[in-house]
Amino acid sequence: MTIYSHIKTSIAEGERLLAVLIDPDKTELNTIEGIVTKINQSIATHIFVGGSEVGEGVTETIVKAIKQHTELPVILFPGDVTQITDKADGILFLSLISGRNPDYLIGKHVEAVSKLTKTQLEVLPTGYILIENGKQTAVERVSNTKPLVRSNIQQIVDTAKAGELLGMKLIYLEAGSGATHPIEPEIISAVKQELNIPLIVGGGIRTKEQLEAAYKAGADLVVIGTAFENNQHFFEQIKL
Ligand code: 1GP
Q1: Cα dist. 120→52, 168, 215 in Å?
Q2: Which CATH superfamily is domain 17-237 in?
Q3: Tens digit of pLDDT for each residue in 108-143?
Q4: Would you call 116 exposed, middle or buried from its count of C-beta atoms within 10 A (0-12, 13-18, 19+)?
Q5: Angle in degrees, CA 114, 115, 118, rounded to 5
Q6: pLDDT, tens digit (0-9, with 9 covering 90-100), for 45-86
Q7: What are the CA-CA distances from residue 114 to residues 14, 51, 85, 111, 207 (Å)?
Q8: pLDDT tens digits for 185-234?
Q9: Domain map (residue ranges) of the chain
Q10: Threshold 0.90, pTM exceeds
């Protein structure tokens, strides 16, 4: 089964999906086995690998190590073309549709093609929507785009729907890694109501309550990075 049909089937069966985000730039190779063992024992269903600024070749080394220790699908969440490696199972082919920088709407995608066609990666076209959360995030800085204003819910909904109508397979609502506040449940549910494709939500989720709130509002897959990076017991603790 492809990664995408597995996501769709799981959602149809009422399953909650969770991806742990590993940033190769912040992860030492010798800690991977321990980290992945913890992820295997957790409620996580996917592993995302990526970061805004990662040195060339680092992602491949980290992905190889992750794959040695898990059966979970490993999906690239690349900040740049240099992070593409065929050692992963799939790739979020991200278009930053909240922004108006052509590089992140189509330019990087064209650059990626010669690499992608040499891999077996499952390509998952994803409408990536950055929403402001009070502080400047790495995505905003690196992509040189402005996030959507969180009070303008209609604009966020329309942006997500435009992504779907353009043929994207997933929509990712992003508050930014380490965001002070996660995406508000009101935004998640408004988007979910209009959308017929799976909805990913991430950024700033640090507590069991925030995780629950995201699922209840309609997130199909939640991404957790910083909370687990800072505390490897995070998933044991939220089980309580
Ligand atoms: C970032 O959405 C992800 O791209 C995860 O964010 O690191 O805040 O969990 P956190």
Answers
A1: 24, 20, 31
A2: FMN-linked oxidoreductases (3.20.20.390)
A3: 999 999 999 999 999 999 999 999 988 888 999 999
A4: middle
A5: 95
A6: 999 999 988 989 999 999 999 999 999 999 999 999 999 999
A7: 38, 21, 12, 7, 41
A8: 999 999 999 999 999 999 999 999 999 999 999 999 999 999 999 999 99
A9: 17-237
A10: yes
Q: Is 182 in the pocket of ligand 1 (CB under 6 A)?
A: no
- Nearest residue to 148 via CA among 131, 171, 128, 172: 131
Amino acid at 159: T
Whether 171 is in the pocket of ligand 1, judged by its Cβ within 6 Å, is no
Regarding the beta carbon of 21 and ligand 1, being less than 6 Å apart is answered yes
HSE toward the beta carbon, residue 218, CA cutoff 13 A? 20
> For residue 102, how far is the Cα from the chain centroid?
21
CA–CA dist 52, 143 (Å, integer): 9
Please name the residue whose Cα sits nearest to atom 4 of ligand 1.
Answer: 177
